[in-house]
Write a structure and sequence with these properties.
125 residues; 2 domains; four-stranded mixed β-sheet; 2,3-Dihydroxybiphenyl 1,2-Dioxygenase, domain 1; 17% helix; alpha/beta; 2 helices
Length: 125
């Protein structure tokens, strides 16, 4: 009995602004929309949930001790696309390190999103 999916929930002071970012800048597909939360599909079985911080089970904080890391196949294209959409890059694409390439940026309230492109995957296909 293994899990078949996941949702990582982030809590926001400005839910509308967060929704605009994930839907319009990252172009994720909204799959659940309830009054105080929305869920976006990242890929099969993997989701990010955006919650109104005044109504969810956790309150937003200034410190964001969590990071959403996404495996991508073409880091250069992702980097170009999000930069063209005005996303502020906090770590540009760097040369491979430990058989991986990395770039990072933040969402409107400071959650870090990390893009990872494996040069050689450590496991699986």
């Amino acid at each position: 009995m293994n899990p078949y999916g996941s949702i990582t929930f982030f809590y926001y002071n400005d839910l509308k602004k967060a929704n605009e970012f994930y839907q319009n800048k990252l172009q994720f597909t909204k799959v659940i929309d309830v009054d105080f939360a929305q869920v976006y599909k990242i890929c099969e079985g993997v989701h990010v949930g955006l919650v109104d911080g005044q109504r969810g089970s956790i309150r937003p904080s200034i410190d964001k001790p969590v990071m959403l890391s996404l495996f991508v196949q073409d880091l250069n294209e992702w980097y170009k696309r999000i930069k063209e959409k005005g996303v502020e890059i906090s770590k540009p694409v760097e040369p491979p390190y430990l058989k991986i390439r990395v770039s990072m940026f933040k969402d409107p309230e400071g959650y870090i999103i990390e893009l990872l492109e494996w040069i050689m995957k450590p496991y699986g296909k």
